[in-house]
Amino acid sequence: MRLDGKTILITGAASGIGQASATKALAEGARVIGIDQSGDGMPDGVEPILGDVTDNETVARAIAATDRIDGLATIAGISSSGNAIDEIDPDLWDRVFEVNVKATWRWMIAALPAMRAQGGGSVVAIASQLAFGGGRRNAAYIASKGAIVSLVKTAAFELAPDGVRVNAIAPGAIDTPMLNRSMSRNADPAAAREYSQNRHALKRFGRAEEIANGVIYLLSDEASYNTGSVITIDGGWRAA
Ligand code: NAI
After folding, report:
1. What is the pTM of this model?
2. Residues of the chain with pLDDT under 50
3. Which domains does the chain have, with CATH numbers?
């Protein structure tokens, strides 16, 4: 019960990595408030807040639902793969940054008053291995994940005096609905899947639970000396 007595907010809790993290957080004894635009897939036992993570009103409802916030995992994100760098719709670029970067910042600062009042807390954001390695036809998404890395390092310094730890995980390709949608945008999805799997040293996609394990660690007191870190869980993508 590594999260016993803790109240944890998780965005993107209805699918993929967020869903797996919410399930594990419940199993570790946490009270979990899950924020997502969709209620389908929200694990039983999670207190749902349905809405767009970029809306102030959604943020306000989630914050009003609890007196304490011990942990925040900003996992909701969108991908924009499939467009050449000179063909990205500027509105799509803005939306990717709105959801992936600005919402990460917005939820972090919204949780701060409660965390400060309690003497601390843990924020976990989700970057990507691509923030370090780059990639093709995915510039808005990859740049947004690079921004998350920089945001986490900056916030870690600023918020350390408040006892708030801020970290990120950089996953490899994880078998989730997002990955399936990204693969289906390729001309030959089966070949794209095989190429991507082989790009990892372990020659497979990760499971959402394998990223959730890292999220739970960073939310827990076991990670008391982690701040400003970006933990790679990528099946050897960066090593391969
Ligand atoms: P997913 O698409 O399976 O789940 C994302 C969840 O976020 C969905 O439930 C969706 O409804 C929610 N969401 C998205 N935009 C929202 C919004 N504006 N308001 C409210 N809810 C919203 O995706 P997955 O794969 O679980 O990804 C989770 C995070 O992990 C994302 O930040 C993604 O960029 C990151 N990531 C995923 C990788 C992968 O290979 N699947 C690899 C590296 C990072």
Report:
1. 0.98
2. none
3. 7-174+207-232 (3.40.50.720)
